[in-house]
Amino acid sequence: MRPVLVLLLLSFAGTAANVWLLSGLLPWFLLPDFSFLAIVYAGLFLPGPLGFLAVLPPALFREVTITGPPGTFFLASVAVYFTASEIGRRIFLRAEIFLFLIVAGLLAAESASVLLLLIMTGGNPFSLLRGAEEVVRIAWTSFLAVFLFLDLSGRWQRIQE
What is the CA radius of gyration of the chain? Predict the structure, then answer.
């Protein structure tokens, strides 16, 4: 139960800090998506129904705080959890580069799917500057994920021993 509470706290505190920081202190693409990181961590490190229950609050936080068509980010978050869960069960290695690639790949896939949904609704959401900002956001969040995931998994291993 402790990992679920820690992920809930991380997700809520990160989302609250990002909403507060969006008031002008930092550009949006430099703010890591802590709810996304909590979802990926739950998929990789928390097996079974406990992991799924840990995903629901961060998915709701993302749905409420990110602008998009209704239900888009909640369903994308649940899809990211199931993808991370499959990766965690089948091919997961605890190497830093592998963690970086998993998070970057999942963020890129989610960004591409949201872009596709926005194009299908008739919008023109893509520009060169927006693409560069998204690449910076993916890289920054992925680098942060490596340190965060290794620290959290190390702490849980020490607690279990």
Answer: 15
Long-range Cβ pairs for the range 94-102 (8 Å, 24+): 94/150, 94/153, 96/146, 96/150, 99/145, 99/146, 99/149, 99/150, 100/142, 100/143, 100/145, 100/146, 102/40, 102/44
Cα dihedral sign, 19-117-131-92: positive
Give the residue among 33, 51, 17 at the shortest CA–CA distance from 156.
51
Domain total of the chain: 1
**Domain range for 15:** 2-160
Q: Give the residue from 46, 44, 42, 21 showing the smallest Cα distance to 31.
A: 21
- C-alpha 93/C-alpha 146 separation (Å) is 12
**pLDDT tens for residues 129-153?**
878 888 888 888 888 888 888 887 7
Check which CATH number belongs to the domain holding 58 and give it.
1.10.1760
Q: What is the pTM of this model?
A: 0.82
What 3-state DSSP class applies to 16?
helix
Q: Beta-carbon neighbour count of residue 129 at 10 Å?
A: 8
